[in-house]
Amino acid sequence: MSRLRSLADPDHMPALDRDVVRLDLANGLGSLDHPPRILLLYGSLRERSFSLLAVEEAARLLVLFGAEVRIFDPSDLPLPDQVKGDDHPAVHELRQHALWSEGQVWCSPERHGQITGIIKAQIDHLPLEFGGMRPTQGRTLAVMQVSGGSQSFNAVNTLRLLGRWMRMFTIPNQSSIAMAFKEFDEAGRLRPSSYYDRIVDVMEELVRFTVLTRGHADQLVDRYSERKSAAAKRDAANDLASRSIA
After folding, report:
1. Could you tell me whether strands 37-42 and 103-109 are parallel, antiparallel, or unpaired per DSSP bridges?
2. Chain-wide mean pLDDT for the chain?
3. Residue range 216-239: average pLDDT?
4. Which whole-number Å values give the CA distances from 95 to 14, 88, 101, 140, 244, in the listed order?
5. CB 136 within 8 A of CB 99
6. How much is the pLDDT for 90?
7. pTM value?
8. How much is the pLDDT for 245?
9. What is the separation of C-alpha 12 from the centre of its chain, rounded to a whole number of angstroms?
């Protein structure tokens, strides 16, 4: 069973002014031999989830800009440490999608002045390293939030902090939608507004930064401290092997 959400009406973007859209966003910035791979995470399980609706608007734009997208459904994701060894199908699938990705979008509602437990649980299930693989390091990140009240930046500020902690390249632009219940129509589409225009800006920037950095990610995140630690482990393993032979 896949936990990826299908994207309804991927080509239908009534709020977008196509006359000023650029489809050559990343020309000259890096190799375009395959589409940028973007994983999108959202932070609410409500039937009418504004963070999901915002992520879907972002995903439609990313597809238009030539990206391949995946939207993860966290509805059966356990809490961190709830299952021994995180041995749960939803956790395994989330990590595989993260490893597949070259960039990510995190969108959270602001609740009590902060991100929700749903989005935090997803991020907490993405370790810095497991099995010699790193599901977040070196990937680009765009952060977004939706609010029930006036515009705020508490959630995106926290998501930025988490992105830095997860060793991701968090792009400069961001999206914060105030009074989201007024901004989405009955069909769940974001009305034409400066909020929609900002999401377009953010997704354009995410595509550019992803293409720019993905071919250099290993070099950009190469660290002296990690090389030193790896060398120490190799020396210890070689010493143990030599003693066992002797």
Report:
1. parallel
2. 92
3. 83
4. 34, 11, 10, 16, 37
5. no
6. 96
7. 0.91
8. 66
9. 23
